Amino acid sequence: MTRRSVLRVALGILLLACAAGAVLLSHGTADAAQAFREQQAEWQRGLVPAAAASPGPAQRAGEAMLGIGARSAVLRSYQVYRAGLADVIPGTAYPQTRARFEAIKALEGLRGSLRSNIDRSATDVVLGVILTDAASDAGTQRKRVQKSAVDAFVRAVREDPANATAKLDLEVLLQAAAPRTKSRPRPSGSPNRKPRSNENPRNPTAPAPAEGTGF
Fold first, then answer.
1. Are residues 74 and 134 in the same domain?
2. What is the pLDDT along the chain (215 residues), one digit of tens a residue?
3. Is residue 53 domain-shared with residue 122, that is, in the same domain?
4. What's the maximum distance between 2 C-alpha atoms anywhere in the chain?
5. Does residue 121 share a domain with residue 76?
6. What are phi and psi of 29, to 5 degrees?
7. Which domain holds residue 124?
């Protein structure tokens, strides 16, 4: 076989490999876009999904091509968390506790890789919600976990001052954490008016469309 023939064979193999890679990348990009849309819809609708499957190399390459790698990872972490909360074993809270711990660890690690301040704010809101939920089962560590939740909401507001959900959740959490007095002075000028009873503040909101659309 001549040198020219060898070069032609090598070039043919190289072109075939490039074509196969292009097809694989095309499928990976399509899979990445579809998975992103589905996870985003579950985030916004508050659905309880199945745990997210780990993407293969082709899908990860597709996410990189689309520039949604970090956002997709955040969505998967939230999906795993939601699925973990639904995994109930009667008589134990272990699955839920583990789901919270793993979600907090994953989201704290991912938020720094998000380019958009809106995305970081959305992630901080979710962290605040998860930490608030975790505080209820934290026992002696309740105040420390609750403070971490407040810090997350504060970061969310600083990252995106237009994030109304972050502001509302921060206010609600601060009101819930504030010490309550047994009695309140009656307003001057209304001696016969009874003070209003304190309503239980609602829990911080779950991620809403305003947060999900950032991803």
1. no
2. 677 776 766 677 777 777 766 766 677 677 777 776 777 676 666 555 566 777 888 888 887 788 788 888 888 888 888 888 777 666 665 678 888 889 999 999 999 889 889 989 989 998 998 998 888 777 788 889 999 999 999 999 999 999 999 999 999 888 887 766 544 444 444 444 443 434 333 455 544 444 434 45
3. no
4. 109
5. no
6. -65, -45
7. 116-178+202-210
Q: 82 and 121, same structural domain?
A: no
Q: What is the DSSP string of 94-118?
A: HHHHHHHHHHHHHHHHHGGG---HH
CB 45 within 8 A of CB 60: no
Please state the length of the chain: 215
Report the number of secondary-structure helices (H) and strands (E) in the chain.
Answer: 8, 0
The one-letter amino acid code at 105 reads K
3-state class (DSSP) for residue 69: helix
Q: What does the alpha-carbon distance between residue 131 and residue 173 come to, in Å, rounded to a whole number?
A: 11
Helix crossing, 69-86 with 117-135: angle to 10°? 20
Residue type, 212: G
Residue 62 phi/psi, 5° resolution?
-65, -40
